Every structure is written in structure tokens, then in C-alpha cells.
Amino acid sequence: METDADAGTVQVKGLRKRFGSVTALDGLSFTLTPGQVTGFVGPNGAGKSTTLRIVLGLDAADDGEALIGGRPYRALSTPLQEVGALLDAGAVHPSRRGRDHLLWLAHSHRIPVRRVDEVLEQVGLASASRRRAGGYSLGMRQRLGIAAALLGDPPVLLLDEPVNGLDPEGIRWIRGFLKSLAREGRTVLVSSHLMSELEDSADHLVVIGRGRVIADTGVRELLAAASGDRVALRTSARTEAMTLLAAAGATVAATDRDALTVSGVNAEKVVQLLAGAGVPFSEVSAHRATLEEAYMELTGDALEFAAPPVTGTEAS
Ligand SMILES: Nc1ncnc2c1ncn2[C@@H]1O[C@H](COP(=O)(O)OP(=O)(O)OP(=O)(O)O)[C@@H](O)[C@H]1O
């Protein structure tokens, strides 16, 4: 990897792009920093692929610019060593063997052949590397695509929907792998239209909708804000607990036969009140929102294809 401090920084500045009457990008700006997995999230059609294509010099912006290590993609002298990308895992010719595909890439970019075997090993494809790509499963094609992105040992990795179509084992593998790449100090961007896919892997999120940034935030901060002061409570005496907590000024909602969500009173106070009144309980914990909940709260109706909100008791 390069040691240049700026090599891993990706800057997207005021990108605009129209396709006929469709505004795909409407003044999009964000910066990616090294050492983090950034989730690039938005519903279908939000503009994720268009952004990545522009960053990678495959499409031209109408306005604005995208810089990798301070330079536009076309100005990079050794692009594969500066940015690795996975855009379309199906792009490998089916009759080509996995290893040959990487060898061809390595030769054409003056990358040493030993890197081919290193990356095949790294993505867990070494034993299947002499098979033709046409016989690969989707998961194996994704791994080959990631191997190609890693070939030049770049400080920046941009992966468009790498989890798409993977089985649970493949998803688990990719999450851990992306995190380990970020821990090595690389800048990792992974796009997805499903927030749940980024649970446990993203450190930072850039959420977009209709070609604009809706949120640019740390995952921890987002979850803390979405979790609010809600407390989850498990009790076999639901009615008594509800009456007691409501009398103390809390707002209480039943979420299950023996579970309540309490807001307006913190966990410590809930324990104090229940214990003081002799109401039995088996669990009191600060409610931790899921990334999906936080996302819905954040984006609300900003999303083009959001489902109508579920209200009242249906939400439980
Ligand atoms: N080559 C093109 N010609 C016309 N319209 C396009 C083209 N590429 C993208 N668009 C439109 O631009 C908008 C943004 O598309 P884009 O593919 O960037 O979204 P996305 O967030 O990647 O969506 P998905 O999750 O479905 O991949 C959409 O309305 C799309 O239909």
C-alpha cells in the first residue's frame, strides 16, 4: 500500500448527472476516509451506481468532480494500484478460468504474478481458481471480482452491492473480510439498497435518496440517536408494570406478551420503581435500535420507494 496520507481519501464534490429528463445526481458531496468501511446506502435508483461509475471514470458528470487521492480517476498513473472496484461480478468471460482472468489483469497492469495467487488465497478461491468462471456460483464470482479489485493492493476499494445474491455464509465472510481490509488502513466503500446488509460491518454511512445525501454519519452515532431514551422491559406482570410506570410519567407500549418498551424514564429509574413496588421483572435494558430502524427514522418519506408507515399497535 502507498504511504501517502491522502492516497486513500475519496472526495465527491457537488456531482450532478442527468439522463434525459431523469436527474440521477443532484449535487452529491461526501468524503471517504481511510480505515473505515463506509456503507453507501439508498433505495433502487437513488444514484449509487451512477456515483461509482463517475468516481471510476466510466461516466462523466455534468457538473462537480470526484477525486481519488486528490486526483480524478483519468489522472491516476497506475489505477489498479490506487483503487480497486467491483461493479459487475458477472463481467468475467464464462470460458475463462478464474486464475487466467486475474493473470491477464495482472499482466496488463504490470502487477507481479505472485499477487494473483495471494489474492486468490485471500478470498478463499485458490482451490477453484483453475475452473472456468462460467461454472462458478454467484458467490464465487463475487469472490473473483473482489480478488480482481485487490490485485493491485490499492488503498481504496469501491464495491457495488457485493453482498447481492450471497448466501448467509457468503455474507458473513464478506462482512468480516471488509472489516479486515479497513483495519489494514484501507478506504472501503460498499453500496447496498438494504440497510440490514450493512449491520455489523459499516463504521460510517452515506445515505442517499434521489441523488442527494440524506445523511453522512457514524453508525454508532446514528444508532444512539435512534435508540433515544427507550428502555426494553421483560416482566410477567405486564399490567402492573404499565400502570406503575405510567403513573411515574413514562410512556409505555406493550411489544409482546411479556415485553414493554418504556420511554421518558431511564433504565435505572425503571428498575428502582419496579423493585420498590415489588413488581417482578426478568430483564431491563436500554433499547438498541437496529440499523434498519435507524434508517427508516432517518429517511422517512425522503425515499422514493418507501413503503407506507406502519402505525399504532400494528408496529409491534
Ligand atoms: N444509462 C442510463 N440511462 C438512463 N437512465 C439512467 C442510466 N443510468 C442510471 N439511470 C437512472 O438514474 C437513476 C439512478 O440510477 P443508479 O443506477 O445510479 O441508482 P442505484 O442507486 O445504483 O440503484 P440500484 O440500487 O437499483 O442499482 C435511476 O433513475 C436510473 O434509472
Using the coordinates shown, work out and report the CATH topology of the largest domain: Rossmann fold
Question: What proportion strand?
Answer: 25-35%
Largest sheet: 6 strands, mixed
- How many β-strand stretches? 13
Query: Considering DSSP H and I runs of 4 or more, what fraction of the residues is helical?
Result: 25-40%
SSE succession:
EEEHEHEHHHEHEEEHEHEEHEH
Q: What is the CATH class name of the largest domain?
A: Alpha Beta
**What is the name of the CATH superfamily of the largest domain?**
P-loop containing nucleotide triphosphate hydrolases
Distance between the termini: 49 Å
**Bound molecule kinds, no repeats:** adenosine-5'-triphosphate
Number of domains: 2
Give Rg in angstroms. Answer: 24 Å
Q: Give the overall form.
A: elongated
- Average pLDDT reading: 87
Q: What structural class do the secondary elements suggest?
A: alpha/beta
Protein name: ABC-2 type transport system ATP-binding protein
Family: Belongs to the ABC transporter superfamily.
Domain ABC transporter: 10-235
Keywords: ATP-binding, Nucleotide-binding, Transport
